[in-house]
Amino acid sequence: MGVIAAFLCLVAAAAVPQDPGTLDVPVYRNAVFGVALPRPFPDWVFSPGGTAQTATVLFHPRQGSLREQLWGALVLTAFDGPVPLDAVAEQRLQSTWQPALGRSFAVLTRDSLRIAGFPALHLVMSGAVNRLAVDVEEYFIARGNDLVILQFRYPRGLPRDSIAAGYQRAFDGLEIRLAGPTPAPDAVPEVVAAPVAEVEPDERTENRRLAGSPWRPRAYEALVRFDPEGERVDFSVRIEVVNDDIRPRDSLGFAVRRPFLLDGARSATGQPLAIGDQDAPNVRLPRPVDPQAATAITVAFHLTSALASAIVETASALAISSVGVRCLADWLPKVTAWTDSAGRALTPTPTRFTVRFDLPEDFTAISAGRLAADFAAGNRRRVTWLAEDNVPSVPAFVVGRLRRVAMRMTPGLTIRVWAPELDSARAAATVGALVGTLRDAWEYFSRAFGRLTIEDVDVALADASEARTAGATLFLSPAAPVDSVRVAVARMWWGETVRLAGSGAQWLADALPAWSVFQLRAAAEGDSVRQRLVRAAESRREPVAALEAARRAIGDARFRTAVRAFFLEHRRTPGTPADFLALIGVDGSSALAPFLQGR
Description:
Helix content is 30%, strand content 34%. By secondary structure, it is an alpha+beta fold. It has three domains: 2-199, Protein Transport Mog1p, Chain A, CATH 3.40.1000.10; 212-349, Immunoglobulin-like (Sandwich); 505-597, no CATH class. An eight-stranded mixed sheet has the order 15-14-17-12-11-19-22-21. A seven-stranded antiparallel sheet has the order 3-4-5-9-8-7-6, with helices on both faces. It has a five-stranded mixed sheet with strand order 24-25-26-28-27, covered by helices on one side. Helix 7 crosses helix 8. The radius of gyration is 27 Å and the shape is globular.
């Protein structure tokens, strides 16, 4: 620990040069460490410094003062052995940032990730330096014995979005060579000018821009209007948010994910709000919102048939059509990041969710939640869906000429099946088998894992490339394979009721439903069927094969008990792969850990 503490003191001293010389180049390159970093903005410069053991490079506005805290830093150093990332980060928090940021010091984010293929830690701190409030973001990257630290500073008196856009360009352009030699005492870093490619705004940029947002969504109220003549869908979404910061906030950033087009925003009283950059919308609220107080904004956006085509080609979500019925998913505006810096899905905050549809009279809509109203007025139909107890992990709906073709009731469960009007006859011929498959899967999973609080399930037969689950609603293709239906049902346990979070969450979210279906097939058709399915999964290296390896390692009875315990313990709180590994013990974990860590 003493070596780490000494190193960090060295870094802290090197990070604030008294009279730095500047380099006005687009890219800083250090040939000794094999690291390159583009500058965030054209009017920023690099100020190299440090010692023989540690290279420190500041980047800041050409005419700016370091006392304004608007700058970043790149620190490069080498250890005698593998870099102890956790110890380095913890020591830096205690020895450097807590004293520097004073009584207002707080850690906002701490997560693990990989950058350029190397293990890394991500920290975000807040506090005040010389009475100037500032947020500091740091990435610790370990490449064998070499440590790379990338630091960004955000003075709170400046608009965060504009700074974040430049920092994102620097982060995306960071290059770290696979192997870096320990620097010689007399080594001189090589600085080479090189062109910097502009990074287009994308979903990752939007997600990063919302990282650390103080706003927590409490309720969504959406109005969706569909006009088939131009195949245009208009959205108006009222978002009620709570300020989770420790100080009043008067600006709110949000993201309307492409290819939806943003039309505008209004305050809670209906006052139009200027949104600034369309790619990074941020509104100034009429008045500051106190800590833990709430406010609301309404965001308007639309989707046309041309944009819908782009969705079909580029994303898992599909489009609304006046001819067919397709599923539209993940359409709500975001006010907080939806993944951490490693790209892992974050557990969404529980929110109330209401969506009202304004449609032509011969159309209807099926959404996640429960049907609360459905009536015709004039030549329009009004349909309302509510999601309170079973809020979907990813909201989805279909709009089209849909009719309810079946409603089957079993003890404790009502199943409603909706099908396109033109396909009702064909759907009626197969709906019995579909409902039977769903009912059998429901009964088996309820016995194996535990009962759900869901009593009503809606099944929308839609043009979907794969079965989708949202809350208690299933979106299925009429030609969906039987096992796809079973997997969709299993996701009501693994993904909708038990929300998975943390490193390896998506891997486990894919593996558990598939494994559940294997057990169902074994119970219904014999263990030889399960063994055949496992061999096929092993040949394709599917996640479920690793779960089977863990089951064999600890025994069938113990593994089934662990899976059931995982469900019962995490029906109301998110579950992580680490929680699952703790339940299956050391032997089971040794079979699963390599797969979880690789995702």
